[in-house]
Amino acid sequence: MIVRIDQLRRDVAAILVHNGVPPDEAVVGAEMCVDAELRGHRSHGVRLVRNVLAEYAQGAPRRTSLAVVRETAVSAQVDGGFHLSWYVHRTAVDIAVTKATAVGIGLVSVRDAGVSGALGHLVERIAEAGLVGLALNSSPATVVAPGTGMPTLGTNPLAIAVPRRSDPPLVLDMATSAVAFNELRRRHALGIPLTAGAATNASGAPTTDPEEALDPASGRGRILPFGGHRGFGLALMIELMVSAGVTGRTGPDKRGPVIAEPADFSGLYLAYRPDLVGDPDAASSATERLLDELAEQGSRLPGESSRLQRAEAVANGELELDEDAARTLADLRTTARQAPVSRPSSATSPASGRS
Question: How far apart are CA 157 and CA 155, in angstroms?
Fold first, then answer.
């Protein structure tokens, strides 16, 4: 299904607003959603709208003002107040950029928001400000330790972006799981097998069947970390830094009856000026020398194919949605037309309440 990019943004924003999301938050959400589709990150594009809205509805009874609840010159703790998760995470990133630009470094944590969406979009935003960006996120328990069938960790993605002299930032965006949970559900919906080593069944044996990789009672995944025990170790440390460190929720706390529990998503964003750690000009020259050498050898750079795919789509003004995304968009449009309009929450103030 071919769609115009500008029309898709309007459609996604309208769907969000119809579900009670304030217009300013919906615009940000639509931008991040469509950017993921443009990059070819299907699991974090249109398909994610349904997840985000489920989390938004789960958080409704607890919704408060989005606020910075604790702050220093170099850090901030953002309580998302269960607002639209895309908007909360980008607000946190912008706070990190503001602090790093002013004093050299910005470290910002996020709680009570929900899924961040594609982290590559967020760290690229940091690097476009001339800063080095790092993002660590945790998520609901859908990942098993190798050899087990019990979900204990989130997919725990990380992303890093480095600014470049004249080219767009170099961006690495990856999950520490062998497959994203939303990608598992996408493949289950489309009947597409998983790659070997991506998941286990209930007994802990490897499986490529998405049906076996989803627990029928809870709906949680049994996804493996990437890279065996090395990936497990990295996922575990992110779980401790971001989930335990930011929210105090781990293990059994994250295995409740609701998978898309927004309190089970948390984030940590770091932005810093290159001059804090070395000579920026020397670093930039060294970066370009190495990347040029890799390009001459035909090496594939992180995020490069996604960037080129996005650039081509933007130049054409349109993109192709896969079957699952097209069906999701159609369902959401139909639901929005049939359901009464939800009023945006009154707790829509920007980050405030600093202490």
Answer: 6
